[in-house]
Design brief:
The protein is an alpha/beta fold and about 270 residues long. It has a single domain, classed as Rossmann fold (3-Layer(aba) Sandwich), CATH 3.40.50.300. An 8-stranded mixed beta sheet has the order 3-6-7-5-8-4-9-10, sandwiched between helices. Strands 1-2 form a two-stranded parallel ribbon. Strand 9, helix 8 and strand 10 form a beta-alpha-beta unit. The longest helix is centred in the first third of the chain and has 15 residues. The chain is globular. The protein starts with 7 loop residues before the first strand and ends with a strand.
Length: about 270
Amino acid sequence: MPTHEIARYAYPIIEVAGSEEPAFREKRSRSSTLRLSLCAPTELKAEAITPWRRPATVVERAELPEKLGDDLVMLTAPNSIAATSYRLLRHRLMSVGNPRILAISSAGPNEGKSACAVNLALALGEELGTRVALLEGNLQRPSLAKKLGFVPTVCFAEQVANVDGMTRPWVMTQIDGTRVEVGAVDPAASEHPKFDRTLLADAIKDLRTEYDYIVIDTPAVLESADVNLIGESVQGVVLVARAKKTRRRDLRAAVDQLAPTPVFGLALIDGTA
């Protein structure tokens, strides 16, 4: 996998695939660190095959709660070194082809992928005139609405599955004070419709006409095949690993399972994040 230099922090290098190890620059943060090696994005493989009229979006606004998780550094500590790491991630992605449709995943659970997805979406939304869609792709363990402290009035998964309502507008929730709009799933709901490959591809293609970037929070790779289904409709995946927790062999297995979807690189998050 071709790589590009992005950053280095004070943890052992984690190999993603093969024996190639990228060179990194040193940087430390007390609250969070991020390390990434990137490859160029490919063109989208999934094509919409169900014709439909492009819907507009209906945007609801959600006020953020007073207390948010410390891992949402772009909201809780926007001037911190940790937040700067996500801005660096944004610029590095732009430097290798500026992919517009990204999936964020990890090998296993509880490795920081949802926080990475939110922070990266917020970093992308800082660009003037940029509109970002942050989509819930983890239907087994949805976390975006809970992390951001709101309950969606319309479930994103139900909107995707609603074949009869394809011409209706997308209902999204805007994070107050940002350019990020969330397609969320209520974590308290007893069950959610499963994603259909064709309908999801159509939905993402349609949303791309409305948004400059789409960031999708997915399940852990080794826990669900949904990542492979989502991978067919994105330009590539950023894998997240947690320092001193994620195992090298699990990362390699995750990369193998994701194939042929490109892996842009690895984001290493400090265990204290």
